[in-house]
Each structure stands twice: as C-alpha cells, then as structure tokens.
Fold this protein.
Amino acid sequence: MWHAFDEQETYLAELTDHITARLRHTVQDQGYAGFAVSGGKSPIPLFQRLSQADIPWEKIHITLVDERFVSPTDPDSNEYLVRQHLLANRASKAQFTGLVSHPADIAKCVQQANSQNHDITLALLGMGDDGHTASLFPGAPQLAQALDTSRPERYVQINPPAAPYERISMTLAAILKAQHLVLAIAGQHKHDIYQQASRQATPTLPVSYLIAQTGAPLDVYWHA
C-alpha cells in the first residue's frame, strides 16, 4: 500500500503510529515482537519518535536489516546509530542484537548473525538512489545469492561496487519472512526510482523484488 505525504511531520507521525500499532498488537497476541531496522541518516527522526512511543519495549527484540563492517563504536555503524537514537527513552528497555560481533572477521560476523532465529514482526527498510534496499546493491558479486529465495541463510556478506565498506545484509528470503514490511522513502528522485522499480523485478534495481513479491504485506511511506 502506498502512503504519500506532502510534509515530513505528518509522514513521521503516521509512520510512527503504524509501527507502534503493529508491534503492540503482536506483543498482545504472541507475547513478544521482533523489529528489524535499517540504518543511515534518514531514519534518525523516526527513531527519535519511536524511542518515546508507548510500546512494551521490554518484550521487543530489535536487530538490524544490514550493517557496515565497521566497529559498533564507529559513527558510520548502524548499530551506533540505533543505540544513539532508538535505544533511548522508553525504548531503552528493548533487547538488541547487532551484526558486527567480530570486528576483525566478517565471515565470523555473518556466521554469528545467522544464529539469530527470532521471528521478525516488522522490517523497516529504506532505498538508495541506485535502487538498493537493505545492502542488496546492484552489481555486488553476492547479489544473486542474496536474491535467491531458496537459500536458508538470514544474512550474507555483500561487497558493494560503489559504496564504502563491506556489508552484512539480510537476504531477500529473510526479509520476506517478516510478517510486515515498511519501505520508507522521501523526495521526488526516490519516488521516480520506486515507480521505475515497480514495472518489473530486475537485479539492476534490487528493491524491485520487494515490490513485486506478494507474500509479505508491504506498506510504502513517502513524503515530498
């Protein structure tokens, strides 16, 4: 479902309410909820709002959709961003599992990440100007593996051809196992990329596979 807003304030309020309701409802039904989040600077205002939301955070397990292979104390780390902006206020009670457990060995990090087996209630995703989502970058040598929905791994190593740092990313199969998906984007350029990606699934725009699938409910939140 497409949700369009003229201004960021309304977008943030509606998106916060949507995520809050999903997590709260799942806790009521199942006793816990899993929340997978993306990094970058775009989600910071959303994280700050969510951190103050009235959710039973002690029953929420937060993890990352993807991560740069840097120390968790590095400002470029998604874990660092999440700890600074989401795991605060009321949300400080949530459980959190990062992806860089062995800062000198990305293979061990991926192995450790793949030991996670909790269900994901909602995955919050973004989209880059090149049509990537999570760290599923077009042209990455591991992209075909990451898009193969028959593979069992939750996470894979990704070497982006035109972005800094090696990455650890959820596979498409793992993303599609989430009960709900939210894609949060902004600006006319990303609106246009989304429209282009909606035409057909293609590895040149990996987000297109998210749009084309029919298994996991997808809500797209966009503001001008």
The chain has eight helices and ten strands. Residues 4 and 222 are 5 Å apart (CA to CA). The domain at 2-223 is CATH 3.40.50.1360 (Rossmann fold).
